[in-house]
Amino acid sequence: MKNCLEVNIRRKIFPGADVAAVEGLMLSALPGEFVAIVGPSGAGKSTLLNLVAGLDREMDGDIQVDGQPLHADGLMRVRLGFVFQEPRLMPWLTVIDNLMLVLENSTDSVERVRHLLREVGLSDIEQSFPNQLSGGMQRRVSLVRAFVMRPELLLMDEPFLSLDAPTAARLRLLLLTLWGELHPTVLFVTHQLREALALADRVLFLSSSPGRVVLEVPVQLPRPRELGDASIGELHDRLLVQYPELLSGLVEEEKQQSASEIPDSDNRLPSSR
Ligand code: ADP
Ligand code: MG
Question: 171-184, pLDDT tens digit by residue?
Fold first, then answer.
């Protein structure tokens, strides 16, 4: 994306709801910037991404690129990739056919799809069906699918939730490799503060419902970064001390999440680079 993304959601209220899901939420992202958005459950993170993607258009607000509406006349002004919390692959299609489906709307070639599959260590399963794959493998396919679009804007909604720690770590590395090739602008939603710090150029914190940005933290640590790095741990702990009330909801959820991680017996991941 050549230009800045500007999001200004004055108010988003779901039909029948008493309170707004998002109110007074403003954010911007530079071209190629990796922005992480953290906030407790129900803060409006998914609502925000759906609005940016144009999947939901009912709101009072503006989403612009270069001062022009991002969505106009049913069209989007940039190429969009969206990685959802669940891989959402078509169960009746093989891996390669799931990707070909996206390729129909892209200028990319089958060669590049195969190249991406090789890069994520999946070339030998292109004829498999999603239900034959582990959770971690399905998520790798959904990552590849987002990059087949050569996205200029990549939206990710808690894409590595409930994966075991090593699988999630490799997928993060993979994401950064793919991001490094095309440099899409990224909005990455998570409620894990460490994950946000490990990935992003800048972390935005949402208040609890109705969500708005209440804190912004640039992360200037060199990449690659791992969740367990001492520098990430220090920044994480410093933020918790500095903003205890703001982050208390997050810490609780992080604890719950690690307790509920599902081990993924996926030993075919490419080795970390
Ligand atoms: P998050 O992704 O941060 O957990 P969501 O964006 O899913 O939060 O939800 C924000 C708020 O909007 C919540 O209070 C949720 O109950 C409400 N909400 C989300 N989707 C809908 C919907 N389709 N209809 C009514 N309320 C919704
Ligand atoms: Mg959500």
Answer: 898 899 989 988 99
Could you give phi then psi for residue 263, rounded to 5 degrees?
Answer: -65, 140
| Cβ-based neighbours of 20, under 8 Å, separated by 6 or more | 11, 12, 13, 210
pTM for the whole structure: 0.90
Element of type H or E holding 155: strand 153-157
CB atoms within 10 A of CB 267: 8
What is the distance in A from the centroid of ligand 2 to the CA of 110?
A: 33
Nearest CA to ligand 1 atom 25: 14
pLDDT number for residue 272: 42
Strand, helix or coil for residue 132 = helix
Whole-number Å distance, alpha carbon 45 to ligand 2 midpoint, is 5
Angstrom distance (rounded) from CA 156 to CA 202: 15
Give yes or no for residue 39 CB within 6 A of ligand 1. yes
Give ion ligand 2 contacts, CB < 5 A: 45-46
